Amino acid sequence: MGRVFVPGLRSGLAVGPGRVSRDGVQDRARYAELMHELVDRVSAFNSGYLALPELRLEATRRPELRAVLTKRIREDIDANIGYHAASGLPGDSTSVVLLYLALNWLIVERLTLPGIFTEQQIHELVDAAVRRSLNACPAKVVSYVGRERCRRRSPSGRGPPPVFSCL
């Protein structure tokens, strides 16, 4: 089976080279701007985007499809995390994953049940998702990509550090 490809999409939430300007301040406002652009762009390609949930459902019945789709989505998430780390935007790998999960479902709601949220509510939800994903990011986090854990260093340097789950 070949690689799953939807033009303009990588797991629904890709912000790839050529889309993110590295000029100017890469702050929370810029991050929110990019996420709004992303939600609008992906929502505009509704037939392609809605094929992904159907493909995921089919993967529950076909192990070979599940293996291919899992590999592809994992690669896309890892690429998004890597690109994010290089972009200079605030946040860490956990922020990227939280936004991936939250905005993917927001897009599904927008496309399948458009009366659930108004356009103003969608705008506010994207802003809140960005703000909260960044506020939840401890200042001293050592992040690991994949299924490992994020650890916050103890402020005093003594005692076991609190543990935060990434995925």
UniProtKB/TrEMBL annotation:
Database matches in Pfam families: TetR_C_31
Domain Tetracyclin repressor-like C-terminal group, residue spans: 27-134
InterPro entries the UniProt entry points to: TetR_C_31
Protein name: Tetracyclin repressor-like C-terminal group 31 domain-containing protein
